Amino acid sequence: MVDGLEVNKIYENDFFDVVRDWPDNSIDHCMVDPPYNMSKENGLGWAFSSHVTMSEDWDTFERKDYLDFSKAWIREVARVVKTNGNIFIFGTYHNIYDIGHILAEMDFRIINSIVWFKPNAQPNITCRLLTESTEDIIWACNNTEEKATKWTFNYEIAKALNNGKQMRNMWRIPYAPKREKKFGKHPAQKPVSIMTRMIMIASKPNDIILDNFSGSGTTGVVAKQLNRKWVMVENKHQYTEIARKRLQATVELPEKIKEVFEKEDEILSK
Ligand SMILES: C[S@@+](CC[C@H](N)C(=O)[O-])C[C@H]1O[C@@H](n2cnc3c(N)ncnc32)[C@H](O)[C@@H]1O
């Protein structure tokens, strides 16, 4: 417990209702997968791609409302995350340019943009456009372009995860497999593999990681397994239920992560 903030807890609330009680500078990093505003009324998301056919109330905004919503949560995240903490934000072309613009307007230091390539993306059934097979992740430092310094990047861990070579910003990772959905499905569930990689390269053991739109809880599930503290916020009971069940079970870490995680202290102390 740090003042009004409880760690290793899922807040089943609206983010804006809980964050106001949290102290400034109390969380090490934020890794978040917000609504992308890509849902369509009939669920025909990506131009009939069948890839993702989202029709979710939590993912449907008028454009101006989406911009206001995004600015408001980013401002709150920046307040509660420590200066120079890492902020990772997922998106696709539906929202990522808006998110990038907001971050630039707020003068955040962008560290990297990461492309998540999904080799098992489903074909586009219209044959009128390229098959969407990527998502984007913006990695920002919680400070201004000019002042940002000493953000966490576990360079040697990243190298170890990539067979001794420098890690690039293109990550080839399939969708969350069936075994990760055995406690229920979330339409935007992120794979354990992507969150393990992010957490291993961009946080230290015992750091507190926030996911303020946590869905089925992938961030917290992985953080717990990797000996990090976590805070998740999700306002839909059906999703917090999945997250709670996942947190009680043991996550199967990808082989490479397991191997590097076992040597984490040794690598970090070099
Ligand atoms: C893209 S999904 C996150 C999926 C998650 N990464 C996973 O692996 O399951 C975004 C989530 O944010 C939740 N959400 C949207 N607006 C919210 C708000 N204002 N407060 C709390 N949760 C919210 C939605 O219910 C949805 O489950």
Q: What this model shows, in words?
A:
By secondary structure, the protein is of the alpha/beta class. It has a single domain (9-268), classed as Vaccinia Virus protein VP39 (Rossmann fold). Helix content is 31%, strand content 17%. The chain has an 8-stranded mixed sheet with strand order 1-8-7-2-3-5-4-6. Strand 2 (29-32), helix 2 (63-80) and strand 3 (86-91) form a beta-alpha-beta unit. The two termini are 31 Å apart. The model is unreliable at 46-51 (pLDDT under 50). S-adenosylmethionine (SAM) binds at residues 14-15, 33, 35, 58, 186, 188-190, 213-216, 218, 233-236, 239.
Question: What share of the residues lie within helices?
Answer: 25-40%
The rounded Rg comes to 18 Å
Largest sheet: 8 strands, mixed
Portion in beta strands: 15-25%
Hetero groups: S-adenosylmethionine
Strand order of the largest sheet: 1-8-7-2-3-5-4-6
CATH architectural grouping: 3-Layer(aba) Sandwich
Oligomer: single chain
**What would CATH call the homologous superfamily?**
Vaccinia Virus protein VP39
Shape: globular
Compact overview of the structure:
The protein is of the alpha/beta class and 270 residues long.
Essential attributes:
alpha/beta, Rossmann fold, 8-stranded mixed beta sheet, 9 helices, binds S-adenosylmethionine
Q: Topology, pairings included?
A:
Layout: E1 9-11, H1 15-19, E2 29-32, H2 63-80, E3 86-91, H3 96-105, E4 108-117, E5 134-144, H4 155-161, E6 170-172, H5 192-202, E7 208-211, H6 218-225, E8 229-233, H7 237-248, H8 255-262, H9 264-268
Parallel strand pairs: 1-8, 2-3, 2-7, 4-6, 7-8
Antiparallel strand pairs: 3-5, 4-5
Residues 14-15, 33, 35, 58, 186, 188-190, 213-216, 218, 233-236, 239 line the site of S-adenosylmethionine (SAM).
